[in-house]
Design brief:
single chain; mainly alpha; two-stranded parallel sheet; 8 helices; globular
Length: 155
């Protein structure tokens, strides 16, 4: 979806089509029950958890409850200002990445690696490598391949 959202303004922007992408974080719905069963919402006390050091670390790591996880999706679908941007990637409502400053992400309590000093960030070459694959060549290839795959099903 990142590559489609990036390429959509160039291909469909003149038609009034808006496309953005987002990362909701690790949302503790029942979808995580097989990978991290202790994180499902029914087993968590969010208020108590947020007061603990471990809970604060979990929040910074992007672990969110369903209400927190849907914020950006709902904002992109309903906010007037969201309809005025196109081809962007959001980590929180109105918080575009890359583009948001480190201070904005910290103020939002966000979880994205942006300074390069976080645990493993230097070894992973973050944030420089985070969106290296998001380029016009890959977007074009994905668009063309997708069109080829669905062409026999379209009228």
């Amino acid at each position: 979806t990142f590559l489609f959202a990036n390429d959509s303004p160039r291909r469909e922007g003149a038609n009034g089509i808006v496309a953005n992408s987002l990362h909701p974080g690790i949302v503790t719905t029942n979808l995580v029950r097989y990978s991290v069963p202790d994180l499902i919402q029914s087993k968590r006390d969010l208020a108590k958890e947020r007061e603990s050091f471990a809970g604060q670390i979990a929040a910074k790591a992007g672990i969110r409850n369903p209400d927190e996880g849907c914020k950006t999706t709902v904002w992109l679908a309903t906010a007037k200002e969201a309809g005025e941007v196109n081809g962007k990637f959001f980590v929180d409502p109105a918080l575009e990445y890359p583009g948001a400053t480190h201070e904005q992400l910290v103020a939002a309590g966000d979880w994205f690696l942006v300074s390069g000093t976080e645990f493993l960030a230097p070894q992973l070459n973050y944030p420089a490598e985070l969106f290296k694959w998001r380029n016009e060549a890959n977007a074009s290839k994905l668009w063309t391949t997708s069109q080829e795959m669905v062409s026999k099903f379209t009228v």
